[in-house]
Amino acid sequence: MKKLLILIMMITLSSCTGVVQQNPDFDKNVELAKTWFDTFTSEDYDATAALMSEDVEWQGCFYGSPVMNKEEAMDYMKGWHDAMENITYTPENYLPGVDPETGQLNGSVRTYGVWTGTNTASGKNFEILMYHYFTFNDEGKIINSGDFGDATGLIMAVAPDSAE
């Protein structure tokens, strides 16, 4: 009897395919995320704002940064442009996201990549690995997003040298 139970369990486990079905919106949303990076790096504020829903929630990457609304998020993005020149993003990947409550694939997009550019005030170049996530509504607008990385350390590293 014990051998029969082990055999049934082995057959059951081997029949599991392990195939995860991708959310049908994922590929479309990857393209929307890529568009956001293109509009942000080109400093096209109107196009960047147009990609965001009016009630977007954006988590910034600075220490203690609160969740921002659309107006605050656009000011945050303008702050990056005012402080840095020649900003580029080179993605390492685009990964599917999950609903935080259910753990199910929800069409959201996560990405790790490298930002490069030059600090406007000091002329110092930077390169930093960052993580971003985007969740989209049915109209293809960003409803929540966030940036994670050591932004505070970056700003300190490329700041102008202090006068002695």
Can you give a write-up of this model?
- By secondary structure, the chain is an alpha+beta fold.
- It contains five helices and seven strands, in the order αααββαβββββα.
Helix content: 25-40%
CA(first)-CA(last) distance? 83 Å
Q: Which runs of at least 5 residues are low in confidence (pLDDT < 50)?
A: none
Number of helices: 5
Tell me the strand percentage band: 25-35%
What keyword list fits this structure?
single chain, 164 residues, alpha+beta, 7 strands, 35% helix, globular
Short description:
The chain is α+β, with helices and mostly antiparallel strands and 164 residues long.
Topology, element by element:
Elements: H1 2-14, H2 26-41, H3 45-50, E1 52-59, E2 67-68, H4 70-83, E3 84-91, E4 95-98, E5 105-119, E6 125-136, E7 142-148, H5 151-158
Parallel strand pairs: 1-7
Antiparallel strand pairs: 1-2, 3-5, 4-5, 5-6, 6-7
